[in-house]
Write a structure and sequence with these properties.
Length: 260
Amino acid sequence: MPSSDEPAIRLREVTHVYGAGAAAVTAVGPVSLDVPAGEFLVLVGASGCGKSTLLRLIAGFEAATAGAVRVAGADPSPGVTSSVVFQQPRLFPWKSVGGNIDVALKYARVPRQDRAARREELLARVGLDGMADRQIWEISGGQQQRVAIARALAAPTPLLLLDEPFAALDALTRERLQEDLRAVSAATARTSVFVTHSAEEAVFLGSRIVVLTHRPGRIALDLTVDLPRSGVSADELRGSAEYAALRTEVGRAVKLAAAA
Ligand SMILES: Nc1ncnc2c1ncn2[C@@H]1O[C@H](COP(=O)(O)OP(=O)(O)OP(=O)(O)O)[C@@H](O)[C@H]1O
């Protein structure tokens, strides 16, 4: 039975193996980790270290080969325990911006009469006020990813999972989206797990950072980030000595973990 005493995410000695026999690839583990509600956890590590696999286990897209994955004391179930944002927005191209949000609101059983207000609120949260009637092909890649985030926020799942959502965007758009996601996270306090290669992105977004070793991914560093979550501008944050020191520390840890 789900229990309120359980952390938002609990991983116990989790291992994941793809394939079998001579073709078996151990992608992750063993990993043990407790994530309290409200935390913004960033998983960072070199390419192929198992970050996406760990996220997929937390989402429930994959079942662990060994060990236990629990979300608030229950088995993970995509769309029920978590909403996922991928590198590509995966929107319905034949629906408008608002239509894409409505699908999630309908699925979340938001009453029809409440949907328009909720849709506008979600679009405003991601900086797309008044864009509900635009078609998906009329908006930029960055705006499409904003719609994907709003759609994920529409579902009242305990977890928000993001798998390199900004990796395909240009540097300026990526920075703007990072800033808006940080603000959304501070305002909603939804427990989140964000996967990235970038130490910089990890430090900017995370309230906690876990660096993974090379494959099979294990925890190389588990760091609480004490930077302020609100009340400071993105430029001030990025310009601070604490931010620079953390970025260096995490960048070094990622390199060391990849080489070890
Ligand atoms: N379906 C699969 N079948 C076999 N091996 C897989 C499968 N998916 C992933 N792998 C392997 O498992 C390892 C971990 O993959 P994963 O995608 O989790 O890493 P990652 O850290 O997210 O990588 P990247 O940052 O490049 O996306 C890699 O070596 C990958 O080749």
